[in-house]
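Sync notes, pocket subgroup
Present: LS, DG
LS reminded everyone that the earlier model was apo-only. Rerun requested with adenosine-5'-triphosphate included. Inputs:
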Amino acid sequence: MIEIKQLTKCYGNLVALDHLDLTIASGTLFGFIGPNGAGKTTTLRMIAGVLEPTSGQIYLNGVDITKNVSQSKWSIGYMPDFFGVYEDMQVWEYLDFFARCYRLDATQRQHIVDELLELVDLGHKRMEWVQSLSRGMRQRLCLAQALVHDPQILLLDEPASGLDPRARIEIRELLKELSIMGKTIIISSHILTELDEMCHQVGIIEHGQLQYSGTPEGLINRHLERQLLFRTLANAEQVESALNMYSGVTGFHADGKGWHVKLQGDDIAMAGLLTHLIEHKLDIIHFMEKDRNLESIFMQVTKGDMARG
Ligand SMILES: Nc1ncnc2c1ncn2[C@@H]1O[C@H](COP(=O)(O)OP(=O)(O)OP(=O)(O)O)[C@@H](O)[C@H]1O
Ligand SMILES: [Mg+2]
């Protein structure tokens, strides 16, 4: 379990991270989402032990890792957002080099290098020079590098940024697999929709402050202005009067498809609206929620106009 308490980082007068509190249970796939400059990289670097906090603590299974940096490195694999790779090495040699740094013996190294190349789909590039790899391939090589010592925790700073759509999907599948294997994974991104489907938990950060932490569904339920569509046999006057009575309805209009309603509220509020319409003797023949637009939620949350949670 990772417990972050009141973690703060200042660069001169700039408060890049402002008293962050966050708990991530073991085995969680956690999506850390925020716009440019929000403080994601700063946070990940402090967890990885390569940047010293100004104040606050980071506990790993109860041990404050800001005081035990060298020890925690064995349990953490970190893939930074910008990586310098040693270019004058062959792909297998590159991973072998890092495996040596973790003092694995020759047999273990051979085994882990083969396994990792297979995992990130670079087996066919094994004998190539690192400098000949494409950006996306380098990114996958860096992911393999972060896994060399089989860490319990993986910190991935925008691992999909240079990848094509197919490779993005493959990385996503790979992360799901690693998560099923029991690893705790923290992955950062600007894009909520890229992560919401695979993450157990998401944290949304802006200006160094956590705006939301919880399940992706919870975010939708709490914050989304839902768009509903229903059809009824009742006349417009009856419908308008019923909708005007229901709190949470923030707007509505009718067109050829039916009645479009904006509702601020969770699943219970939505179910309540349907009951309300039926109780008002509106004969409903269709009732559905239109597409949830996660990007619009993200925009709402990072505008800073949401309550912290
Ligand atoms: N070494 C540094 N010196 C001074 N300011 C820094 C330094 N590193 C980061 N910052 C500032 O701290 C804030 C947070 O930066 P950080 O890199 O953590 O954001 P981020 O969420 O990772 O952004 P991005 O999505 O662009 O990667 C920014 O305002 C940035 O300019
Ligand atoms: Mg960053």
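DG: The first strand starts at residue 2 and ends at 11.
LS: Residues 165-180 form the longest helix (16 residues).
Action: DG to write up.
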